Amino acid sequence: MSRTGRVGVGVIGAGVISTEYLGNLTAFSDLDVRFVADLDTERARAQASAFGVPASGTVDELLADDDVEIVVNLTIPAVHVDVALQALAAGKHVWSEKPFALDRASGRQLLEAAHDAGLRVATAPDTFLGAGIQSARRLVESGEIGEALTALTLMQSPGPESWHPNPDFLFQEGAGPLFDIGPYYLTALVQLFGPVASVSAQVSKAAERRTIGSGPRVGEQFDVTVPTHVGALFQFESGRSAQSIFSFDSKLGRTSFEVAGSTGTLVVPDPNTFGGELVVHDGGTDTRSVPATGVTRTRGIGVLELARAVRAGVPERASGEQAFHVLDVMVSIIEAATSGTVVEVASTVELAPALPEDWDPTARTLEA
Fold first, then answer.
1. Of 227, 260, 290, which one is at a domain's C-terminal end?
2. Rounded to an integer, what distance in angstroms lies between the CA atom of residue 315 and that of residue 351?
3. 108 three-class SS
4. Measured between alpha carbons, how far is 112 from 319 in angstroms, rounded to an integer?
């Protein structure tokens, strides 16, 4: 029997990012956040207490709660798939932090498990649901810059080890600038240009070891096992093209996202945010700002959009299929850099429509 009313949510992983998620999820009237679980049950208890969540404990205890319909998987990338498969086996829909998986085989396994169970495996980032990228998509689709032709994206930083108290995992498999930051930019590119058809790339690594710059482990060194600078070229099924740089090797931190069209160029807000200003360059000195309209709430709106989609029986926008395609693109980038060849991207995705401009995460749309 189909359920009605507010959607029960349980959070697995009480680390740093859970604070942002819990702050939003507990404020959405359509959600009922019931449980926080973590290997460190005391940490889970503290987060549950801080946000008024009624229960906390182990993963098994969370999965045994029949009123939890969606599991929000905030674990480290290396166990995203294992935790998601556990949740699916318990009859729960899943929202996972990015990346969707670390390789194509486990990603396909996750999609197939969800399909076989009649469940959903939506995945971050949900930043593309924010006003910035949604407004950019509406402008591109309306012909505001003529025919969209190419895109240029840039993300450069010195790396997160200067501020993150436990940055080791961000320089290991499943992270680095490509897997940690790439999903924001690649998801936005797919939203604007459609599925990627092929990629070529070059990668490098500035140092084999890095040093933690803050927190209780300051001065401690750790191994770097993934590329820390990635340059990629994309050809899309639509015939459009783009190029991107993802780097933890620049002392000059900067971000940029531009879409060039036949009559103008659109400067898109940072896709790792939910809002921002859009700027249209029409040529010469003609420049105009376009206000972003839509949602500016932070991480967690994808969980809400998933919950409402489940109740309505319609596809969610941050789908597992989209996340798998982005994963496929990222794996293809590494393969292209390793082989020195152009790699065809086998997967594709059908995009859901843009969010309505008046979509309101704070509204109560589901009956009690």
1. 290
2. 10
3. helix
4. 13
Q: Are residues 103 and 132 in the same domain?
A: no
- Residue closest to 201 by CA, chosen among 104, 103, 327, 340: 340
| Closest of 24, 14, 21, 94 to residue 46, by C-alpha | 14
CB 87, CB 73: distance < 8 Å: yes
What are the CA-CA distances from residue 36 to residues 27, 80, 164, 234, 298 (Å)?
16, 16, 23, 40, 19
Q: Are residues 144 and 285 in the same domain?
A: yes
Q: Is residue 307 part of a domain?
A: no
- Both tokens of 30, joined, read 């359509």
Count of the separate structural domains present in the chain: 2
Sign of CA dihedral 189, 304, 311, 99: positive
Is the full-model pTM beyond 0.70?
yes
| pLDDT, tens digit only, all 368 positions of the chain | 478 899 999 999 999 899 999 999 999 999 999 999 999 999 999 999 999 999 999 999 999 999 999 999 999 888 999 999 999 999 999 999 998 899 999 999 999 999 999 999 999 999 999 999 999 999 999 999 999 999 999 999 999 999 988 899 899 988 899 999 999 999 999 999 999 999 999 999 999 999 999 989 999 999 999 999 999 999 999 999 999 999 999 999 999 999 999 999 999 999 999 988 999 998 777 889 999 999 888 899 999 999 999 999 999 999 999 999 999 999 999 999 999 999 999 999 999 999 998 999 999 999 76
Query: Do 198 and 258 lie in a common domain?
Result: yes
Q: Are residues 153 and 197 in the same domain?
A: yes
Alpha-helix runs per DSSP H in 273-346: 301-312, 320-339
Range of the domain at 199: 128-290
Cα(first)–Cα(last) distance of the chain, in Å?
A: 17
